[in-house]
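so my prof wants the structure for this chain in the tokens format not the other one, which i didnt know existed until like an hour ago. anyway here's the sequence
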Amino acid sequence: AMAAPVTRIAVRSPRTITLVDVKDISHVEAEGRYARSHAEGRQYLAQHSLAELERMLDGARFVRVHRSAS
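here's what i got, hopefully its the right format
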């Protein structure tokens, strides 16, 4: 059985690790080996790859779009 989608993800800021509510994330983009999440006007570098986050997030809410489509 597949695990339920996560409701928060851990992101790193210069001094701490913060939990960001997935419901606040507008979009996520690849940044090297990590993923940059955009939530409520702020950006966070997640300690996961885009592929890892894709498996963790709710597929009904997040859709993968390639840069060439933008």
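also thought this was worth mentioning. The longest strand covers residues 25-31.
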